[in-house]
Known about the structure:
flat, 4 domains, Immunoglobulin-like, Alpha-Beta Plaits, 24% strand, 7-stranded mixed β-sheet, single chain, 5-stranded antiparallel β-sheet, alpha+beta
Amino acid sequence: MMERSVTMTLLSDAIFGSGMSIPGGEDISVKLDETGAPYLSGSTFKGLLRESVENWLDWEARADRADVLEQLFGADGDWNGSPGTRRVFVSPLTLAPGQRLGDLLGQRTFTSIDPETGTVREGTLRVASCVRKGTVFQGQISFAAEDQALVESALLCIEYLGTSRTRGFGRVRFSVGEAVRRQSVPETTGSGDCLRYGVELLENVRVTDLDGSHNTFLEGKRWIPSSAVRGAVLSRLARQNQAWFEANKTVLLQEVCFTDLIPGNPGTKPAIPVPMGFYEGKLKNNFHSLLVEEDVRPGTKRAKLGSFCTLEEQGGKLWIRGWSPKLGADTRINLDMQNKGGDKPGGLFQTGHLLRGQKAEGMVLFSDGCGPELKNRIVEAFCEENGALRLGANIHAGFGLCQLTEAKWCPEAPEAAAYGFRTGDSVPETLYMMLLSPLMLLDEAGEPRGMDRAWLGAQLGGVKVNELLCATTVAQQSGFNRTFGTRLPIRTFYQPGSMFRIDCESAPSLDCLKQMERAGLGVCREEGWGRVLFLRNLPDIRGRFERTDEGETSKGQRKAASKRRVRAEWLLDEGRAKKLRGKLSKSQLGSVQELLTFAAAHPEPQKRINGIFEGWMTDSAGGINPAKRDLYTPVQNYINSVLEGADLPDSASEWSTQERLELLIDLIRVSRKEGKDNGKL
């Protein structure tokens, strides 16, 4: 394949419609990326090029016109794609460097004139956003060497694009540049039965998640499935040497396991799904595991830790460092639906995707039956085309391009080495097993079933399992077999991150645990399913990990995290809430909260607070009302004591008056929210 850079210059204003509008602002919006910059999508670019190639072939009166179009761009309605090697790949056209975004966008207005009166027809004013003349966009295009003259000639013939071409919009000039230079393929190091590799997403990656999709929105997965990587690598192997592939197909499909590509890991430790079963309070305190404590603490809810995580040690304790990949979505038009009309005119729908610029990591696991030749061929397949991989959907229209950034051989799966039991460790009777990938178990009749103690004990070497406690979720998944053109059966499985606490009568051997981690459980293991990990220190996890985007914990963040923990502990002390509340009713306590909020903006807040309390205790005759004095004086004294530094933790000695006022306001909020009144619980 030849890969060339492409430059597109706007010779007039252009409207790259996104299909969306802004009520009261504009009726046609320009297509913008996640940074707010305009771009031409790969599907639009591909459609323009296909139309131009078709015209060029007509001008030449080529007899093989239909065959050439199908080999270069695929057949209409053919989801399987062309099996040939002449397919054209295009990227989105994005802004060239050195242009100011604020100078590139403008607005144009349109109206319709009534031919009878010569005046503006009522209700026809339209406002459209446009990209200004002179803006330059860049991208890439890949094609077979035999098609170079055809593709480049057709590309130079594209003169107009976008909306309102007949009104002078969208005139462009294309030019083809030099060959695109990719970074060198990384050297593969180490040895073992696990190939750990990393990629960078050069384009958005689209893999549909049917579970989260609905009528007009196709949700994108938060990871790149192992099946996508497996298909790309095995296709390359089949293309490189068909005879060798046929001879080794069984080993490749049964003895080689590809794992999901997990994006967004900001650190160096291997990423794993977030373990289920963790709960926390509303103030991110009271962090605990359901599996360890066997129950949920009152006032807590499921902890929001992200989609994936690493386990980090700091201060002699273990913390969960979670994150979620960056996702985006774009609007598309279903032309079939648009032409049919009916109840859904226009056929607009949205599709989600993983955003470009993220890095992802995955693994290839080999069984003992895989020899050096097979491993080397897998590495060669990854390194083909200078390490470029195209994964997911719409790979010919500006999606799915990834670049190999690292490849390293490991003796075992990195998650097991980082978080599992190590050689020489003592295995306890209580084990915590986490699913790294979906797990589907079948009974003797081939029907899905759940985890049970007897079966699990047999997998652990015949030990007796006294109790099995779990924190899990299940889901269903189907698919489509393109070879046979049929739907796949629905599969019910435990989702990744599901946790099982296994209380054994006697501790199983370390070799048995390692064998389960290597071989996995259940069915579909060759697809990466059934991978498990025995966490050696789950009870030691104390909470979420606070870090910067660069991955280094700053002093400011550590101080802020420490302050949040101190505040949470202070606020939830029940005796302290009683001191502040005294004998006040809810409405009177609300008045005190308003007083503290008002005093926080006063130059002398404590003086202002004492003055208002004195006014509350004064009767109409100007004297002190004994009943009101007994009611308000304890509350006033406690507020003054906190402002003067009493009843505060030692670490809060440097807190400002404003911070102490905010602390008192939060204490009132907590007290009122819990429904406490008149000093009674």
